[in-house]
Write a structure and sequence with these properties.
By secondary structure, this protein is of the alpha/beta class. The chain is built from 29 helices and 15 strands. It folds into three domains: 73 residues, Chitobiase/beta-hexosaminidase domain 2-like (Chitobiase, domain 2); 354 residues, Glycosidases (TIM Barrel), CATH 3.20.20.80; 143 residues, no CATH class. The strands form three sheets. The protein has an eight-stranded parallel β-sheet. A five-stranded mixed β-sheet has the order 1-5-3-4-2, covered by helices on one side. It starts with 13 loop residues before the first strand and ends with a helix.
């Protein structure tokens, strides 16, 4: 019969039921150091003579005790004799939380994340920062953002350390600097001060000009943030420099190549930090497109992190269904869509061909979704684990982002986070875990919420309208003029699933300290998703009758009141108005349509 491993998280790589009596309830626990075990590894035996634990290091002992607690708590295992041997596939198993797209978490929320990471055996935490740290000399940039302070970071660092987690300073240093460049004192640092066009839309400047002065500016930010934590590892980002080589550096890029211009800036930022004794992580998207950069990277200290947020099959489905206009736009923007459909294997090719070590960074699928894109996330997380393990990647970082207003609360991130933690610990024994059951046991300490979250997270696939980096439900609210058509029967099934998930929340009984908050935030996310389904079912804004538009407008206004209240349960007030403002175009369009009845 199958081993009763469902009570263990993550599932160990090796567990045997022994044909002998199990331990008495008061049996002794003996612990000894075993240097022959792999790093972070342990061996645990429970039999009639008691419990014996061998461990390689402090982490291994911590994980062994965690497993022992789970064995004792599981009725089907507590009285059995067992032998467990376990260690992780990836030495670093991290989680990155975006705190720069409006939603800056409260200390209570940060504490909750740390508790979940510890329970899930993740050992690194990063807060993705653009402008939401209170840098000493840059108050105009963060004044309205309710930023994290140096005291917040020192508090969080101590909390992480107590749980065996490394808090890594993370500050972008090239792209995604729009919140800085929007202010006059910093605009001169922009590659294209007038802004740029991507996806057919004009955007304000986001990329620093690759100059020594701007590199020194970026290094100063990283050093100030890193000075609040004890880790000797930092993440300098340097991803998606959309304007690079298209503005002030255009002549240089034409002469020497864009890859060389990028590498020079990367090294100007990284080298002083390497000399400070830091290991330096950076995002490897530019490297993927410019293999010459991979060849020229330093031999040690600089860690390329390969990111990819759509599973290969999901990406292929979205690309194959794209309109001719969309394909033309991708080509005009310079995107290699075939590489995107190739998953982590294709994204890492420049590094694997050059024999360069790298880390992998998949995503939770929570952002641009309202309720998650769990099927996509599972495929993406598995792809990262498989390719990372195949190439000996030293780290696996689960990311969750907040693109376009970060409307999704923490609970929507938890399914992908927990699954990623499991498969980065041991892919072979965890690829088929029951995510809903694991959520109820590890995160919520009670039934109901796990099923609601996983059911809601399945709706993005259920509507059968695949998009890259987002769901049709999210697009219905925030890109309502460019939303795929969804069949009525798919929308009816989506409403049925979401309605059942909402009903199950009424029966949820989470005993976790923040269980009431988790229920309320999840209910709000499901309500937003149901509103999106209703909007699509009405034919969108353009297809809705004036009476239907009036009803939708009234429903939206109620949801926005609830969204403001729910936001403040887990996030600071800075950024709330900006996030709510994302609904304004839809609200205005519904109001115009409703007015046609008068």
């Amino acid at each position: 019969m199958p081993l009763p491993t469902a009570a263990l998280f993550p599932v160990p790589r090796s567990i045997e039921l022994l044909a002998e009596p199990g331990p008495a309830t008061d049996a002794a626990v003996r612990v000894h150091h075993d240097p022959d075990l792999p790093e972070q590894g342990y061996a645990l035996v429970r039999d009639g003579s008691g419990t014996r634990i061998g461990y390689r290091d402090d982490a291994g002992l911590r994980y062994a005790r965690q497993t022992l607690d789970q064995l004792r708590a599981a009725p089907e295992l507590s009285g059995r004799a067992v032998r467990v041997r376990d260690w992780p596939d990836f030495a670093v198993r991290g989680f990155l939380l975006d705190v720069s797209r409006d939603r800056v978490p409260t200390r209570r929320t940060l504490r909750r994340y740390v508790e979940i990471l510890a329970a899930a055996r993740m050992n690194q935490f990063e807060l993705y920062t653009e402008h939401t740290f209170a840098y000493a000399d840059h108050a105009p940039v963060w004044a309205a953002a309710s930023p994290l302070t140096a005291d917040d970071m020192r508090w969080l660092d101590s909390l992480c350390a107590a749980h065996g987690i490394t808090l890594v300073a993370n500050q972008n240093t090239l792209g995604h600097m729009e919140r800085w460049l929007a202010h006059e004192p910093y605009r001169h640092r922009a590659e294209k001060p007038e802004g740029f066009t991507i996806h057919g839309r004009h955007r304000r400047p986001s990329t620093l000009q690759p100059t020594p002065e701007n590199a020194a500016f970026a290094v100063g930010l990283v050093r100030e943030l890193a000075g609040t934590v004890r880790a000797r590892r930092v993440n300098i980002g340097a991803d998606e420099p959309w304007e690079l080589g298209k503005g002030r550096s255009a002549a240089d890029a034409a002469e020497r190549g864009l890859g060389r211009v990028y590498l020079d800036h990367l090294l100007r930022v990284a080298t002083p930090l390497l000399e400070d004794g830091y290991e330096v992580m950076f995002w490897a998207d530019v490297v993927a497109d410019h293999p010459e950069v991979a060849e020229a990277l330093p031999d040690s200290g600089l860690v390329p992190v390969v990111w990819q947020y759509d599973g290969p099959a999901h990406a292929r489905a979205a690309i194959d269904r794209a309109t001719a206009e969309k394909r033309a736009q991708w080509a005009a923007d310079g995107f290699d869509m075939e590489a995107l459909a190739g998953g982590f294997r294709r994204r890492a090719k420049a590094l694997t061909s050059a024999g360069r070590p790298f880390w992998v960074a998949p995503g939770t699928g929570a952002w641009n979704s309202l309720v998650g894109r769990l099927d996509n996330a599972v495929e993406n997380l598995l792809d990262a684990a498989e390719i990372g393990h195949e190439h000996g990647a030293g780290g696996y970082v689960v990311t969750t982002w907040g693109d376009h207003g970060h409307h999704e609360p923490p609970t929507v991130t938890y399914p992908g986070l927990l699954f990623g933690a499991a498969v980065s610990w041991c892919l072979d024994s965890n690829r088929d875990i029951d995510v809903a059951a694991a959520l109820d046991r590890v995160v919520f300490d009670g039934p109901g919420l796990g099923a609601a979250l996983t059911a809601a997270g399945s709706v993005a696939d259920l509507v059968d309208a695949p998009l890259l980096n987002g769901s049709a439900l999210f697009a219905a609210l925030f890109a309502y003029v460019d939303v795929p058509v969804v069949a009525p029967d798919r929308l009816a099934e989506a409403e049925r699933v979401l309605s059942a998930a909402a009903d199950s929340l009424a029966r949820a009984r989470p005993a976790a300290a923040d269980g009431d908050i988790a229920v309320r935030e999840t209910a709000q996310s499901i309500a937003l998703a149901r509103f999106a389904v209703a909007l699509l079912a009405a034919g969108g804004v353009a297809g809705a009758s004036p009476a239907a538009a009036a009803d939708l407008l009234a429903g939206l206004d109620e949801l926005l009141v609830a969204q403001r209240a729910c936001w403040l349960l887990s996030a600071r007030p800075g950024g709330l108005d900006d996030s709510i403002a994302r609904f304004a175009p839809l609200r205005a369009a519904l109001a115009r349509r409703a007015a046609a009845a008068r």
